[in-house]
Amino acid sequence: METTVADLIAALDEIAPFGLAESWDNVGLIVGDRDRRVSSVLVGLDPTNRLLEEALDCEADTVITHHPAIFRPIPAIDTGESSGRFLEQALTNRLTIIACHTNFDAVCKGVNDVLADLLGLHDVSPLVPANETFPDDAGLGRIGCYSQPQKRGEFVAMLLEVLDLDTVQVAGELPETISVVALCGGSGSEFAETAKRSGADLYISAEIKHNVGRWAEENDFCIIDGTHYATEKPAVRLLAEQLRSYGRGRNWNLQIKETETENHPFSAVDKNSYR
Fold first, then answer.
1. For the segment 246-269, what is each residue's pLDDT rounded down to a tens digit?
2. SS3 state of residue 239
3. Which of 84, 147, 183, 253 is the S-S candidate for 78 at Cβ 3.0 to 4.6 Å?
């Protein structure tokens, strides 16, 4: 069965309703023609030129990213810098670009639920529920618990394995045992106080602001910065799997794959790195 860009957008709207996106966000079609036929889709986290090169290498005609290539109106497309080159490359090669951002953060079985699942949490619910027009299981962040308290060392080892990191930054003191965990994949400094009020032993997110770290330190709370990339990376595979499942049920004849070249934008250096 032939699949169009419009069909793909309708699928994403069913998987993660665009109405769940934050008011400042820009989701859905970013570049392209809704009537264009789709034969191959590449799913990634960030709208980078390297991702477009991967799409061309694997002959994908459509790229779905979590983060939008265009957040707000732009006064000019400067092809001398990276975001302008991205749009130029997409248009020149007739690549369709679609974003599925905070709607996928908020929906049940999205960014935050896959992270909660990987951490083995039970009785998971939204940390910040969506408004009453959406199901009770939708909203930003998640909070859940363990059936048996986790020892600090075992929990940290599991977290590092899930995030595929060697280290994380911690503000405040890690509890000796952990029973209730709040989390928000991506940037979530603003939900730290909500996490504490909700009874969490600690809060996992990314891009934690300095003053929020100080707040945790002085209020006997623990915040773990797992980095933006690492806390959202598992969602790339999840979205690709959900689209493949959706397509199989409708006899779509197209390939849907997740990026194999995208990696963490930050690397660790120490005093011995350049000796």
1. 999 999 999 999 999 999 999 989
2. helix
3. 84
Domain count, the chain: 2
The answer to whether 101 touches 30, Cβ cutoff 8 Å, is no
Give residue-wise pLDDT tens across range 58-88. 999 999 999 999 998 889 999 999 999 999 9
DSSP 8-state secondary structure symbol assigned to residue 99: E
Question: Which residue do the tokens 């090669």 mark?
Answer: 93
In this structure, are 30 and 50 located in the same domain?
Answer: yes
CB 187 within 8 A of CB 210: no
Q: Examine residue 114 and state whether it is found in any structural domain, yes or no.
A: yes
What is the tens place of the pLDDT at every residue in 96-138?
999 999 999 999 999 999 999 999 999 999 999 998 888 889 9
In a domain, 265, yes or no: no
Note whether 158 and 241 are same-domain residues. Answer: no
Q: What is the DSSP string of 132-174?
A: TTS-TT-EEEEEEEEEEEEEHHHHHHHHHHHHT-S--EEESPP
Closest alpha carbon to 204 in 176, 232, 235, 244: 232
